[in-house]
Amino acid sequence: MSDSGKLLMSGNEALALGAYEAGVGVASAYPGTPSTEILENLVGYEGVYCEWAPNEKVALEVALGASLAGVRALATMKHVGLNVAADPLFTAAYTGVRGGLVIINADDPSMHSSQNEQDNRNYAFAAKLPMLEPSDPDEAKEFLKRAYEISEQFDTPGLLRTTSRVAHVKGLVRPGERAAAGVEPGITKDPRKTVMLPGHARLRRVEIEERMGRLRELAETTDLNRIEPGSGTMGFIASGVSYLYVKEAFPDASVLKLGMCWPLPEGMIREFASGVEKLYIVEELDPFLETHIKAMGIACTGKEKIPSIGELNARTVREAIMPGTSEAASFEPVDIPMRPPNMCPGCPHRGIFHVLRKHKVFVSGDIGCYTLAALPPLQAMDTCVCMGASVGIAHGMDKALGAEVKGKVVGVIGDSTFMHSGITGLINIAYNKGISTIIILDNRITAMTGHQQNPVTGFTLSGEPTTEVDIEALCKAIGIKNVQTIDPHDIPTARKVVQEELERDEPSVIITKAPCVLIPEHRNKKRARYFTKEENCVGCRQCISIGCPSISWVPLTPEEAAAKGYKEKQKGHSLIDSVICDGCGQCFHLCKFDAIQKEEEPA
Amino acid sequence: MSQMPKDGSILFCGVGGQGILLASEITSYALVAAGYDIKKSEVHGMAQRGGSVEAHLRYGEKVYSPLIEPGGADIVVAFEQLEALRYMPYMNKNTNVVVNTQKILPPSVATGLESYPEGILDRLRENGLEIHAIDAFLVAGEVGEPRTANMVLVGALSSFLPLDKNIFTAIIQDRVKKGFVEVNLKAFDRGRELTGGKT
Q: Which residue, A183, A411, A482, B146, shows the most beta carbons closer than 10 Å to its own?
């Protein structure tokens, strides 16, 4: 075996190992695809304190605090999370660090699991911070360690950017040793550096420009950036995963690989450009490198040919630069039924959206598994913008339209999302005499990102029991008088309570409390499933309308209907797959014909 | 590695929850044990909730891109019939296509809005593709554990890889939960037999 000693790891697993090897002492994060697994893995290493923060702003502030205490610190987040953490980010650039401070930012080109496709390299430019961009898991680990060295050497927070095809790609990684701390931990007082009063900030502002100058010098000499000489007349500049696509598409061409994508090594770029006849910039999303290289007065071709929307791949790059040179694909995509993600059988979110659809309300939605309620057949969500937006948007609509929309707008938000950014919006409703009804879908976990603990679940990232936020008491404490907690599987009660709260002239909160079906304690619980008593089914499709994967529609011809003893005009009947039925009973509540019945013995 | 093919690409596709990631993981470890460099790309998050799932696995002396190009898969393992059709653009005339004959209805079919396409295997064959159709659930049931359907499919695809069976055996012994090793080895063997691999 030629690769003995190497480990097969995803980019995120490698980053966790990198953080451990770098001697990180404190790590804080809010889960978000494709960054979540970094802390989930890091918590398994000895000697690193790891936590889930309620949001990315808090996570970065915690990491900054640890850094100022002289301990190497890490905050991880997805691209939109850095928007939330942008406030501390821009001023942490002023305070600088004591222990190394790195923010791992995971972008999601093609939006596999995101609401937008922003390119966060722009944050490095805007916040005046260095950014490293690894191409694969092995580099991810090494670059993270380098990012800590740079952070401490230059007294600056460092950014490390991954994308989905680095974070979630597995490759071989060379493990190393854990480094000793480079700084003495402890409290040091240095208000001119860490109290950003205008007078102090003006002094730090000058320091930032000087620091950027020194970082530009580093960019020229660091081996993170390298020229790979090749043959032919074309030269490519690329960073991150785009570099791999260039190597695949044009294996013999000259390449300038930028492991540090901000600040840029102007001298190195000039030298490289002068050695090639035609210079191409290959990058996903924004023309970030291209814009800054063109600003140097260097002629190059980028987004004129390379798509700015979505992920690239080797073929896209090859065809963009030399059309017609890829092997023709043998088969075109076939028009077949789509298979979008769906809420699980027994999901506690399903019924409440069925109720909201029946009420014909405008549903101001939020980020989580329940966003899937926007898809058919539920189609019961009308907005989804960012974490916590459901609450503010509902209030804004109520204030804009007044009595006209009374009882017609509902905000819907999950437990973790409410902790992240919903609370302030709800305080705003109470404070400004709003009338909105907000439904908090409390499924006892941060589900969409793969089951992370949060402040309402009663457990920490490391699995220790902890205090649990009492959502009901919290809502009351901020001034919401009408708060009801219901079992969302009980659809008749949900219907009644939604009606009651929509009729009020005051703000109200409905908490739907039932665990996510994927929580192991729930999965392992024995419970009776439901089955279809086919002879009673009249084909009304009520149970079908909630879109449960365990219920399907069996179409019938008039002859088949007659043969089954149905009326000839009955178009079909529903059928429960008892193997995947979770026993939630939501469909049972919807059937008026006793065609859905409960098994007697729990299986 | 002189007699081995220099490189190759395997596409795993199916429906979230079918054990695709474990199957691609076992295959990855086997290739690494044989001395190959590999890159495997997966999609997590929203795409997993019962949606269409894919994993790209590329191997060679040195692998750059983590993604297979359209038409570039040497082996496609479809864990579900409809998904075989969906991922056809990754196939070419020489691709070895392993298809689990299981059908999982997409939401639009389950709710009666669309129908599940008929004759998928014939359609694939009419396009000149070599299709290895396997009822992995049935086979897994026969070896005594329906949950080893994914290992039946790993066995089936292994026949098209330049790897000794013992490499897979060692990886399965290493990576599968104790108590399930024997049944998984049996499932692997049955899958391998069905595509004519040496056991």
A: A411
Q: Which of A166, A138, A135, A132 is nearest to A37 (CA)?
A: A166
Q: Does B127 touch chain A (CB under 8 A)?
A: yes
State the Rg of chain A over Cα.
28
For chain B, say whether A601 makes contact (Cβ under 8 Å).
no
| Closest chain A CA to residue B112 | A553
Count the domains in chain A: 4
Domains of chain B: 7-109+118-194 (3.40.920.10)
Helix (H, G, I), strand (E, B) or coil at A350: helix
* pLDDT tens per residue across span A505-526: 999 999 999 999 999 988 888 8
The shortest CB-CB distance from B110 to any of A113, A313, A553 is to A553
Q: How many residues are listed for chain A in this entry?
A: 603
List Cα–Cα distances, B193 to A153, B157, B186, in angstroms.
60, 10, 11
Nearest to B108 among A170, A326, A337 (CB): A337
pTM of the model: 0.97
Residues of B in contact with A4 (CB under 8 A): none
Q: Any idea what the CATH number is for the domain that residue A98 is in?
A: 3.40.50.970
User: Could you give the 3-state DSSP secondary structure of residue A508?
Assistant: strand
C-alpha–C-alpha distance, residues A7 and A439, integer Å: 45
Q: What is the ipTM of this complex?
A: 0.95
Confidence at residue A404, expressed as pLDDT on a 0 to 100 scale: 86
Tell me how close the Cα of B109 comes to any Cα of chain A, in angstroms.
Answer: 7
Do the domain assignments include residue A355? yes
Q: Is A374 on the interface with B (CB under 8 A)?
A: no
Cβ-defined contact of A169 to B44 (cutoff 8 Å): no
pLDDT at A198 over 50: yes
- For residues A238 and A181, state if they share a domain: no
Which of A480, A503, A523 is a domain's end point? Answer: A523
Whether A343 maps to a domain, the answer reads no
A365, A388 Cβ separation under 8 angstroms? no
Percent of chain A with pLDDT over 70: 99
B145 touches chain A (CB under 8 A): no
Q: Which residues from A are below 8 Å from B7, CB to CB?
A: none
Distances (CA, A) of A128 to A124, A158, A203, A224, A560: 6, 10, 15, 19, 71
| Structural domain for A202, as ranges | 7-218
Which residue of B28, B45, B85 is in closest CB contact with A336? B85
Q: What is the pLDDT confidence band of residue A600, given thresholds at 50, 70 and 90?
A: confident
Q: Name residues whose C-beta falls within 8 Å of residue A292's C-beta, 6 or more positions apart in sequence.
A: A125, A264
A328 in reach of chain B (CB within 8 A): yes
The closest alpha carbon to A561, from A537, A585, A582, belongs to A537
CA distance A443 to A546: 18
Q: Best interface-test mutation with A: which of B28, B105, B111 has the largest number of A CBs within 10 A? A: B111
Q: Chain B: residue nearest A329 by CA?
A: B71
Q: Which of A36, A336, A544 sits opposite B86 (nearest CB)?
A: A336
A247: chain B residues, CB-CB within 8 Å: 64-65
Q: Same structural domain for residues A105 and A212? A: yes
Name the least confident of A87-91, A286-290, A313-317, A597-601: A597-601
**Residue-by-residue DSSP string for A259-288:** SEEES--HHHHHHHHHT-SEEEEE-SSS-H
Q: Best residue in B46, B91, B121, B171 to probe A by mutation, most A CBs within 10 Å?
A: B46
- Domain closes at, from A218, A247, A276: A218
pLDDT tens digits, A456-507: 999 999 999 999 999 999 999 999 999 999 999 999 999 999 999 999 999 9
* Residue A314 dihedral angles phi and psi, to the nearest 5°: -60, -40
